[in-house]
Amino acid sequence: MSENNKDRIKISSRGGARPGAGRPKGTGNKLSGQMILDQIETSLGVSYAEQLVNNYMTCLNEQDKNMIHQYDKLFLSKVVADKVEMEVTGLEDALETKKLAFAEALKELTNKDSK
Question: How many domains does the chain have?
């Protein structure tokens, strides 16, 4: 090997980490979901929700069953995700039942650990 080849540093041709490469820490997103919705609303002149309803009505009028199905799934998933119902009856009884169940579970765990 000649003197010049000894001093050379081998560099991978396949990439890899580089000093200073990548997105700087703390950098914010340049594009947010709200920015996209705002721009759509500005361009359309109506809210995004109104445009969804208009598109849905167009699909209904044109009897596009596939798109109607897609909109139904979209709307239903949103409604179900936003609506949570809980029926609370006999609050004192429920609290006492939970206390007993917790105590029993704790007792079982303690007994398993001691064996």
Answer: 1
